[in-house]
Design goal:
Number of domains: 1
Structural class: alpha+beta
Strand order of the largest sheet: 5-6-7-8
Order of helices and strands: HEEEEHEEEE
Number of helices: 2
Strand content: 15-25%
Distance between the termini: 68 Å
Shape: rod-shaped
Largest sheet: 4 strands, antiparallel
Length: about 160
């Protein structure tokens, strides 16, 4: 092999040290950027949860208004047709069940992202609505406890502590 001409520059690759510095800088940039990218997701989930609670309140009020317009007796309010779909009721308000408030909320928009869990709160049937998981964000929950007695209203509460 002929000797190299001194006028040609010597080609050299990237050293391990230079490569390690580049990898460390990329890691630092990702560590700073990822939390900033997750903040809008958490804010969107909180807004979705607040929208669901407001919709649950409005839907329950609509059900109750239609029930009062229909009935001289509370028995005629079960079920009430909302948008042509029968929604089960208890004491003039939507029942805390899949064919009650869950059905009524489904009529107002898509609810595939909500997981329903039946419960009892102070001896009254309730339904916990939980937004589907999204990465490391919290559960994002609200409670709908049906009306405990005639003349009482349902309890609809946002559980703030569950949605960071």
């Amino acid at each position: 092999m002929p000797p190299r001409s001194p006028s040609l520059p010597r080609l050299r690759g990237v050293s391990r040290f230079e490569f390690a510095i580049v990898v460390a800088l990329l890691g630092l940039l990702l560590a700073v950027a990822l939390p900033r990218l997750q903040a809008p997701l958490a804010a969107a989930r909180q807004a979705r949860l607040q929208q669901l609670v407001a919709t649950a309140r409005a839907t329950a009020a609509l059900f109750h208004g239609q029930c009062e317009a229909l009935a001289a007796s509370p028995g005629r309010c079960d079920p009430v047709l909302l948008s042509g779909v029968p929604v089960a009721g208890v004491h003039g308000w939507p029942a805390a069940s899949a064919d009650g408030i869950a059905m009524a909320l489904n009529l107002s928009g898509p609810t595939a992202d909500i997981h329903w869990q039946p419960e009892q709160i102070d001896g009254v049937p309730a339904l916990r609505g939980r937004l589907g998981p999204a990465g490391t964000a919290g559960a994002c929950e609200f409670i709908y406890a049906q009306a405990a007695s005639p003349g009482a209203a349902p309890r609809i509460e946002l559980i703030d502590a569950t949605c960071p």
